[in-house]
Amino acid sequence: MKLISACLLGINCRWDKKHNKNDKALELLYNEILIPVCPEQLGGLNTPRARQEIQGGNGKDVLERKSKVINENGEDVTEQFINGAEETLRIAKLFQAREFIGKSHSPSCSCEKIYDGTFSGKLIDGYGVTTELLKRNGIKIIREENL
Length: 147
Hints:
With 147 residues, this protein is of the alpha/beta class. Helix 4 (78-94) packs across helix 5. The chain has one domain. The strands form 3 sheets. It has a 4-stranded parallel sheet. The chain has a two-stranded antiparallel sheet with strand order 3-4. The protein has a two-stranded antiparallel sheet with strand order 6-7. The radius of gyration is 14 Å and the shape is globular. The model has no long low-confidence stretch (mean pLDDT 97). It is built from 5 helices and 8 strands. The two termini are 15 Å apart. The chain has helices at residues 23-28, 39-42, 59-63, 78-94, 129-136; strands at residues 2-5, 34-37, 52-55, 68-71, 99-102, 111-115, 123-127, 140-143.
């Protein structure tokens, strides 16, 4: 059993109410149980919503309260991101999920690269908030590109 970023299964939960359907992820449904999660929605954010980026760090820094997640309107959505990560971890424990397939570049679900917080499209090294929390709790992280 695996958790997966819900947008990868074609669920319209992205910030712009679109999805990131991944055909390889959909193929996994034939052989595996996938549990779709959208940490941003689980944390209380609406869909659609303003774009968000981690400013001054990465998911690790957000969990350690050294960085914040700010949306493009300048609003602090850090607590919603942390709450969503914690709810996702609860779901992982409830279903004994051992792996998470994350959406690249997402401030919640990314598995290596995130946007740098300037809304300019520049990428930096780092995990999203949810991915970092899951990783800390022994859940294997799989990049969507590695499906």
